[in-house]
From TrEMBL:
One of the GO BP terms on file: endoplasmic reticulum unfolded protein response
Residues spanning the membrane: 33-54, 131-151, 188-208, 220-237, 243-266, 286-305, 372-391, 403-424, 430-449, 458-476
Subcellular location: Endoplasmic reticulum; Membrane
Originating species: Promerops cafer
Biological pathway: Protein modification; protein glycosylation
UniProt keyword Membrane present: yes
Descriptive protein name: dolichyl-phosphate-mannose--protein mannosyltransferase
Keyword Membrane: yes
Span of domain DUF1736: 311-383
EC number: 2.4.1.109
Annotated GO CC locations: endoplasmic reticulum; membrane
Family listed: Belongs to the TMTC family.
Membrane topology: Multi-pass membrane protein
Amino acid sequence: QTFNQHNAEAPNLEQAFRRMAQMEPNLDHDVSWFLLPSYWAKMLVALISFLCFANSYDGDFVFDDSEAIINNKDLRAETPLGDLWYHDFWGSKLSSNTSHKSYRPLTVLTFRINYLFAGGFYPVGFHVINIILHCTISVLMVDVFSILLGGLQFSNKGRRLNLAPKSSLLAALLFAVHPVHTECVAGIVGRADLLCALFFLLSFLGYCKAFRENKEGHTFSVFWVLVSVVLGAIAMLCKEQGITILGLNAVFDALVINKINLLELIRKLLYKDKSLENAGLLRKGLLFRITLLMCGGAGILYVRWRIMGTGPPAFTEVDNPASFADSLFVRAINYNYYYSLNAWLLLCPWWLCFDWSMGCIPLIKSVSDWRIIALAALWFCLIGLICQALCSEDSHKRRILTLGLGFLIIPFLPASNLFFRVGFVVAERVIYLPSIGYCILFTYGFSLLSKQAKKKKILAVAVLGILLINVMRCALRSSQWRSEEQLFRSALSVCPLNAKVHYNVGKNLADKGNQSAAIKYYREAVRLNPKYVHAMNNLGNILKERNELHEAEELLSLAVQIQPDFAAAWMNLGIVQNSLRRFEEAEQSYWTAIKHRKKYPDCYYNLGRLYADLNRHIDALNAWRNATVLKPEHSLAWNNMIILLDNTGNLAQAEAVGREALELIPNDHSLMFSLANVLGKSQKYKESEALFLKAIKANPNAASYHGNLAVLYHRWGNLDLAKKHYEVSLKLDPMAPGTKENYNLLRRKLEQLQKKGG
C-alpha cells in the first residue's frame, strides 16, 4: 500500500527532495562559479584533463619504465599468464629475497595487452592508455565530488541528485589539472596508480548505489555492497593503496548515510550512555555493512599475504634513510617532515622531481633544525581541521571536513611508514588518491571565502588563474617526462643533493657516447654518496674503456668491498685485472661474479676471453658454450667459438658451430662473415661467397668484409672481382692490415697475365 502511494506522488517527489536539500546548507549557495549541465561539466573536465597531458603521448620509455616494461618478461607471449599471479610488478618471483613485494598483476596484464596489440615495445600505445585513464578518472570525479560535497540524495525513480553542481565541477577541475599527477600520467609505470584510482572510485560509486531513500528511512542492497568490496579488491590488485577504499566507504556510511556525530558517539561510548541503543545503527544496517566491509578487507589481505609470503620487502638505507635510523625520535620527526613535504606538493606543486631519495632530503637529527617549522605548520593545520571536523555545531561542515580529511589521510596510510617500511622518501605518484581530499578541502575553503568576500568575481578569477597556471605546469612537466634526458636534467635544480639524479644524468650521457660529461656526473654522484656502488661501477667501466685502469680498479674494488654480492662489479673488476695482465686475480673475480649470479652469460663470455688469452682453449670454448646456453642470442660468444676453432685448424667443428649459431641468429652479419671465412678455407667457395655477399648487404661499410671476400675470389681465381673488392676495402680503410699487400700481389699477377696474353 505504501509502495502504491509513493507511485501516486511520484511527479512531486523529486521536487520535494530538491526543496528539502535546499533547506540544508549547500556549498553552491556561496560558490561563485560556473553552473553547467552534468553532461557539459563532464565534457569540460575531460577536455581540460586531456589538454594537460596530451603532449606526453609520444614520449619514450623513461626511468622505471625500463624495468617494469622493457625488461619485464611477464609482458612477453612466451610467459604463461598464470605466472603474473606469482610475480611482482617488476617480473621477479614474490618468493625471491630481492622482490619488492609490489603485487599488481592486473596492471602488468594491461601492459602485456598493450605490448601484444602494439606488436612490440612502442611507447605511444602505453602513453595513450594512461591519458585516457586519467581523463576517465577526472570525469568520474564530477560524480564523486557531487556526493562528497553535496550529499547522497535520490529521486523516487532512483536517480541520484547532484546537489552541488558548481562545487563538484570546481573540485573535479582542480583534480584534473593538478601537476603532481604528471608522474602517474606521463610516466607509464604510473598506470598502477591510475587503474587503482579507477576501481577505487567505482567501488565508492558502487557503494553509494547500494542505497535508496524512501519515506521510512534508508534501505540498502547487499549486492552492491559486495560489488563494492570486489571492486576494492580489483583496485588493490592494481596497486596496494586500493584496499583503503573499504575504510573510506565505512567512514562515508557513518557520516553521510547514518549522519553520526563522531564526538557525540565517542562521548556516549566513554560514558556508556544508554541512548546508544536508540542511535539507529542496527536499524539502518550500519554495523552489518561495516562487518561486510571488514570481512571482505580481511579476506583480501589474507589472500594477498598468502601469495606474497610473510617476508617483508628488502629495501636499502638509501631508499628510505629515516626508516633505518636507530633513534625512534629521529624516525618519527623525519616521517612527519616527509608528510609535510607531501602536503606542500599538494599546495604548491612547483618543485617536482622523479626521485626524492639519496640525500635529496637530508635527515633531521636535532630539534634545532629549522625544518621543524614545517612539522609544526602541518600539525597546526591538521589539528585545527580535526577540531572543526569533530566539534563544529554545523553538521554540514563536520561532514565535509571529515570526508576531506578521510580522503586525504586514509589512502596515504600505506605510504606513511607507520605499518611497514616503504622504499621511498617522497613519491609524487602516491598522492594521486590523497589529492581527492585536498580538492574537497580547497573547494570548501573557497566556498567559505566566497561567503565572506564582497567581490566574489575577483575570487573566482583568482581560482581560474590557479587552474590556468596548473594547466601550464602540467604541460611543461609532461614535456619533461617525454625523454630521460629532460626528466633527469629537470631534477638537478630541484634535488641537487640527490646522488641518483646525478647518476641518471651521467648514465644518459654515457649511453649517448658523451663519456667525458658522464664522468663528471658519476664523480659527483660518488661524492654525494660515497657508498653508491652503481655509480662506482659505471664510472669504473668508463675509466676502463679510456684505459685508466688503475683508478678503475680502485673504484671497482671499493664497490665489491661495500657490496660483496655485486656481480656486475666483480665481472668488471675481472676485465680490468685481465687488462692489467693479472690473470689469476681476474679469473677469481669472474668466478665470484658467477657465484653471486648463477645465470650470467656476459661473465662467462669474458671468462672465455681470459682463457683464450692464456691459450686454455678447451676452457675458453666451454665458457663461451655456457654463455650461449644461458643466452642463445649471444653473438660475441658464438663468434669467438668459430674464430678460435678456425684458428686452431678445427674447420669442421667451426663450420658446425657457425651453422648452429646462424640458425639461432639468422640475421647476424658478423656470424655470416666468420662462417664464410671457415667455408672459404674448406674450399666451399660458392657457399662462402653467398654468405660474404649477404654480410656485405647487411653491413656494406665493413672494410674487412670486402677484403676477405676479395681474398676468396683471389683463391678461387675470380681475379677481376677480387680486384674490385680489394679496392672497395682500401677505400673504406686504407690502413686495413694485409689488404694492401694482397692487392699489390693481385696487381702483379694481373700484370704478368697481361704480358703473357700480349
